[in-house]
Amino acid sequence: MNPLKLVFKELFYRKVSSLIILVTVIAAGTVSVAVYTLSKASENETRKIMREQGLNLYIFPKGTNLIDFYSVNNTSTFPEHYIDTLAESKTFDAVRHLTGILQLKYPNWVDPNGSKHQIVVMGYKDEAMQRFLSKQETMGFDVEKGTVHIGALLSVNIPEGENFTIAGTDGKQYEFKVAKRLEEGKGMLDQGVAFNLTDLQQVLDMKGQINKIEALGCVCHDGRIKNARGQLQDIFSDLEVTEVSSIANARENQRLMMNKYGSFIIPFVLIVSLLISGLLFYSNVNSRKYEIGILKAMGKSKSYILFMILFKAFVIGLLGSLAGFFAGSFIAEYFGKEIFRFTAMSIKPLWSLLGYSVFIFPILWMLASWVPALLATQIDAAKTLSKE
Amino acid sequence: MLKINNVSKIYLKGKDKFTALQDVSLEVEKSDFLAVVGPSGSGKSTLLHLVGGLIQPDSGQVLFRGNDVYKMNSKEANRYRTKNVGFVFQQFHLIPYLTVYENIKIAETESERKNGKIEALLEKCALLPLKNKYPSELSVGEKQRTAFVRAIISEPEILLADEPTGNLDPENSKILMTLIKEFNEDGGTVLLVSHEPETTNYATKIITLRSGKRV
Q1: Which of A317, A319, A376, B91 has its CA 20 to 30 A from that of B166?
Q2: Residues on chain A touching B113 (C-beta within 8 angstroms)
Q3: Pick the CATH number of B27-57+67-214 from 3.40.30.10, 3.30.465.10, 3.40.50.300, 2.60.40.10
Q4: Which helix (H) or strand (E) holds B13?
Q5: Domain check: are A377 and A358 in the same one?
Q6: What are the pLDDT digits (tens) for A195-209?
């Protein structure tokens, strides 16, 4: 008789005990999947908030006074190729989305009506791809050459369809197509114009120069700013990092806390469930001692008996992992939407977790049944079956 | 065919020693029907389990066709129990979640598997209409007959019966003993442990044990 059939028939015969073991697997699976999915959602939420806020680390020439930087025109600059060096560095990994910027006040811009205004001009270099880090979606401005993005306040003065004109340091008039009219709330850019870096360098006759690198600090356990500062100092001692502190910090702390709790809750629930299951398997073996005794008397080998118990654990582990995955994903989706505002719509089952679950849980539950299975092989058939 | 040489078995119960068998020897030929009788605790079942390869003796030998059963490796010992020995117990020990047919099928070896063999034996034992019933749906007589068919399905040379009629009424006892006798008459060897005189009447040889010794 096929031992698989024996396992399934026993499983259905002892419905209650099988069901209790299954419930422990489902509980462990549900908690693990839900907590992991929510911690991923929390991570995404933090990232999204940080992205919403824009790049949060600024790299300036050392000694730059930030008050001066925003109010005067002659801030120190540094070579544009620094950014390429950082992007090529193996050790500079505490920040992402490196964007080289040349940002200056432009005091006498003349609008199409002939009025003069002080505006901010910003030249954006395309975001640098860090060679030794995974590829990411770009965050900074991507301004094509020959075009500009104009700030909300400025766009009031430039009618639709008209080009943006600005006088260069060389006295020439430069004309750019308005590719985008930015919405309000872009900070300095509300009263400014975003150029492609090369275009602005030409207008201002500052070829190869930038005065700021904007970047996004990594989400690190040991503090992004400290890391970023150390790494930058090792490469360019004439630059320094300033962090734009924000609620992203609080969010990041929340995420780190979630990870911390997750790394405690998941193992705790798993261990408790495995211990309960181990005891239930032991009780199952005890209630089957006559059956195991008779199988031994029939000449069934120890491996046959071991297989019977372990395969049962495998089946329960497999079924429990599937149910636990879907239950955990549902719970994460249901409650996650309440908790994580920004990423609510993107909280979806992590399908890669299904693969891990169906692989790990049957193995864990086979391990939980291992000692009871070994005890089953040691059952003394003579003592069990004998009345004397 | 079966030779038991000076076997002894002592059980430890806490600090106390209990001598189940002491220097017991006997010889069983093919087609013998040997009844082992004696009072409760005399070592009858221990002797049966020793022959069945289930209990390692403390001393002595159990030889089957000249081979010491307790010097076999685990594979050979399993094979010995599967092919050469069939057990019938007083408590039936049927697997509760298997049908009558499946309880027998599980004991069937690959090599002895023949189409319709189980059905033929079930028919002979008046169990065929019950083949799809579970043990809980059977009477005690039907349960014991199922256990008997399970014991002989692999055509063992020796049938070891430990108080097989202990739970049966006289009518069912008679039916079972007739079936065991038929197995014996067909060339099978039977070792029967019993304290009921009616069942020992079927035996061709009787030995008596008292306090673990043959008397």
Answers
A1: A376
A2: none
A3: 3.40.50.300
A4: strand B2-13
A5: yes
A6: 999 999 999 999 999
